[in-house]
Amino acid sequence: MAYVVTPPCIGCKITYCAAACPVEAFREGENYLLIDPDICIHCNDCLRECPVNAIFPEDEVPVVWKEWIGINARESKKLPIIRDLKTPLLDKQCNIREL
């Protein structure tokens, strides 16, 4: 079962999760990240690194964000791999628990 990136990532794009991923499952959009479910090995590394609580196991995605399971699955195929740390966006909508 794959992990899913949800809306709290939008505008933040903090890449600790992508850098921690051992299988290069993360994809980079303009202002967010996604996870390719066909690559994700559900190892928990990214979950521990996300300071905005945007990553959930597929079966634990909050009801209001269930559509993001499909968004990650479809849209991740169109985006480039991200594996390195980058400067975060940190738009005003980011709700960071720690950085």
TrEMBL record:
Transmembrane segments: none
GO molecular function, one term: electron transfer activity
Domain of life the protein comes from: Bacteria
Cofactor section: [4Fe-4S] cluster; [3Fe-4S] cluster
InterPro entries, sorted: 4Fe4S_Fe-S-bd, 4Fe4S_Fe_S_CS, 7Fe_ferredoxin, RnfB_subfamily
Record domain 4Fe-4S ferredoxin-type: where: 1-30, 31-60
UniProt-recorded name of the protein: Ferredoxin
Organism: Leptospira semungkisensis
